Amino acid sequence: MSNVSLRLAWRNLWRHKRRTWLTVGAMIFSNSLLVFSISLQFGSYEMMIDNTLQAFSGHIQLQHEQYLDDPKMRHNLPNIVTTAKRLRNELKLENIGARAAGFALASSRDRSYGIQILGVEPLYESRISSIPGLIKEGQFLQQDSYDEIVIGSILARNLKITIGDELTFIGSGLDNSFAAGVVRVVGIFESGIADLDRSMAEVSLAYFDDSFAMRGKGHSIAIRANNIEAVTNLQIRIEALVDNQNHLAVRHWEELQPGLKQAIQADMTSAWFMYIVLIILVAFSVLNTQLMSVLERTREFGTMMALGLKPSNLSRLVVVETSLMAGLGLLLGIAVGFVITWYLSIVGFYYPGMEEMAVKFNLPDRMYPEVSLISLTLGPGIVAFGSLVASIYPATRLYRLLPIEAMRAV
Amino acid sequence: MKGIGTINLPFRAMLVLSWRNLWRNHRRTMIMLAAISVGVWAMIFMTALMRGMVDDMLRQGIQNLPGHIQIHHPDFRNDPSIVNSIDAPSGDLLNALNDPSTKAWSTRIKVPAIIASERETRGINLLGIEPEAETIISGIGGQIIEGRFLLDRHDKGLVIGAKLAERLETRLGKRVVVISQDPENNIAERGFKVVGIYKAKMPGLEEFNVYAALGTLQTLLKIGNQISEITIVDDDFRDIEVLYQNIKQATPENLEIKAWYELDAYLKYMLNMMDGFVLVWVIIIFLALSFGLVNTLVMAVFERVREIGLIQALGMRPGMIVYQILLESLLLLLIGLGIGNLLAIITVKPLESGLDISIVAEGLAMMGASSMLYPSLTASDMILANTVVIILGILTSILPAWRAAKLDPVQAINST
After folding, report:
1. How far apart are the CA of B184 and the nearest CA of chain A, in angstroms?
2. Inter-chain contact A292–B49, Cβ cutoff 8 Å?
3. Cβ distance B364 to A261 under 8 Å?
4. How many CA atoms lie within 13 A of B220 on its CB side?
5. Which pairs with CB-CB distance under 8 Å and at least 24 residues apart come from A241-249?
């Protein structure tokens, strides 16, 4: 039956050329729109995640279990440098670095600001965070840096200091002693993330340890996985390696940056609402077309039934017709969507005034949709499925057809 | 032929004809109506949600600035230091501010500072405020969850956020030390008693903004009657141009005056983006609908080819045929719009008391929105959606209608 009914279905489809093309047109329109916007979504989410995590937090952090909710000096991990070294050896991954963080009042000759001082391992920090690579003036800390500091560009402007100037800081150490020091500014970074540029400074972990009386303790070990897909696996391996340590938690980036995940979720939800509406509208279009095509063929179907075809054969014919139509819409929709999206993934997509939005979410000022198998097929696939669902009603109507009456129908 | 002439039916007759034609194939009409209704509902519903969210972001953003218009020392926004203070308003500016057309205005001190409890130290944004006016402008007075708000401009207390209290491990009634600097670059510090704790809709602010009375800080910072900024609010943030120009006229040359949309480019962008979004969304939905609409009309014409040929032969002019098809399309659109609008109103109204979306609260905070969504059904958005559907709907119907009118009567009558 297959060959004949396929040909029959195909010919039936073109009995009303204009109607079929209009319905397929609705599919092509929705499909290419879906391909474009899903690709754009994926592209921008990935960029948002990468840029935000690379800036500072990394993909995974080892912390004291209370540090995430309550980032205080006393929620620390012992022997942070050796733990980091052990992880680097065992995981055969170099993108791992120990950090300690404290709060201090930083003063230049004529200004004072409260800042976050971070002690980092200069050699490994550049493998985790993008800050060392975003030095605008001067250079990043060296392995043997001691009383040297790297500060954000807004902080430098507010403190009115530049490379080579001295900066005094006062804070309190781990033992509640006075932590104070005079450091020389060797580098100024500009991350574009206002919070970091305004209030963050980095010194070497060794210097931080001495100034804040840490005695080998630290607050986090930041880890950057080779790619985002590897994170969950890596987290499991790390948990296995450190599970004998008390009060230690291995944090996934979703815990470190809950806002990021939720911003994506919120955006996803509203986007899917729109997609579903589009899909429903296409389904209505298909329903209308197929119902019309069934109703106008009542006589013909009656004759076919009189000749011995069963209602199931006829309804299969309707489903095959719909499938052909949906397939046509799917292929052409993907093709049109692909061409548009692929073009924009090369030249970039821009709409006026986007910069402000982009800055807020750590995105570049042009968006590059990401064409992938999923982004190409997901939307159109659902549209095709929705079309088939829409053909159920017209197809089942055939079971109620009585041959004699049908043949008499006008 | 003279005896017969051309037929011009009155509008009522055309209406009845179109209406009956519409229901000749009631299934098709119902499906099309369902599609239009769902489309229109989605247009308005989604727009109301987005509008509500963006309005909330704007209101929050403006409250955080705070105010619709601000006046500063020209260097203050780049270098928010006590050095860049200005004199309290006087003369023309004071008169303009006190004009009844200004809803409220206030002077504030805003300086970076350090706050220290017995256990912890934090960097903060220290605000010296006039309690009464500040409550109108930033709403902070209404967000106190424990203790009280500042009473007057010489109150000796300090109001901090709940999150900051937690970070500092301090609570109501405890003393904290606030450290900043005076214009001579000397350390200015003072112990304050925490008299009130507030909870902000944006968690980030709670950790950052600390409120003290204006007079108390002026004494502490040794700046006499000077202030950091003047903030002014109008009735509606969308409509501030008149006030803005009036105050601008009265502002001395050596001060910088900016409206909210100049102070925060992101807010301005959000407002523009929202208007753009509504239009794009409405048009996309319409386009998805238009295929079905054209299809329905094409079918309606196709089934009636003989009939159209006949009435043409009887003398109905092509114009009347176009008119009749368009009237059919218009009726279809109007009923669909009616149902769609009604559905939208029914679904949005119960949500207007607020939709709790706190599962994604931190993500929304990143965008600058709070975790309650108050959908906002505005007349202008509804008018836009309805107008677009009617106008574009009629335009897309012209083609099938025109094709029907062009049929050759003789061939049409003979077609099967």
Report:
1. 9
2. no
3. no
4. 27
5. A241/A86, A241/A87, A241/A90, A241/A91, A242/A62, A242/A83, A242/A87, A245/A77, A247/A64, A247/A65, A247/A66, A247/A77, A248/A62, A248/A63, A248/A64, A248/A65, A248/A77, A249/A62, A249/A63, A249/A64, A249/A65, A249/A67, A249/A68
A100: three-class secondary structure by DSSP: strand
Q: Provide the ipTM.
A: 0.79
Q: Per-residue pLDDT tens for B326-372?
A: 999 999 999 999 999 999 999 998 888 888 877 777 777 777 677 77
Show the beta-strand stretches assigned E in B226-269. 229-233, 256-259
Q: Is B289 on the interface with A (CB under 8 A)?
A: yes
| Consecutive H or E run containing B285 | helix B265-303
Once rounded to an integer, what is the mean pLDDT over residues B387-414? 88
By the 10 Å C-beta count (0-12 exposed, 13-18 middle, 19+ buried), A369 is classed as buried
- The three-state secondary structure class of B198 is strand
Question: Hey, what are B370's tokens?
Answer: 């709070």
Put simply, the answer to whether A277 touches B32 (Cβ < 8 Å) is no
Predicted confidence at residue A2, as pLDDT, reads: 64
pLDDT-based confidence at residue A171 (cuts at 50, 70, 90):
confident
Helices A298-306 and A311-347, packing angle to 10 deg: 130
- Which of A21, A282, A284, A397 best probes binding to B when mutated, by most B CB atoms within 10 angstroms? A284
β-pair partners for A222:
A61, A97
Alpha carbon distance, N-terminus to C-terminus of chain A: 29
Domain ranges of chain A: 2-52+260-408, 60-224
A343: Cβ–Cβ under 8 A, 6 or more apart, which residues?
none
- B90 near B219, Cβ under 8 Å? no
The reported pLDDT for the residue numbered B415 is: 73
d(CA A251, CA A230): 14
Which residues, 6+ apart, have CB-to-CB distance to B213 below 8 Å? B128, B129, B131, B150, B152, B153, B154, B155, B156, B157
Could you tell me how many helices (H) and strands (E) chain B has, helices first? 15, 12
Q: Of chain A residues 174-213, which have a CB less than 8 A from chain B?
A: 199
Residue-level pLDDT at A60: 92
- Nearest residue of chain B to residue A263 (CA atoms): B363
How is chain B split into domains, by residue range? 11-61+268-414, 67-263
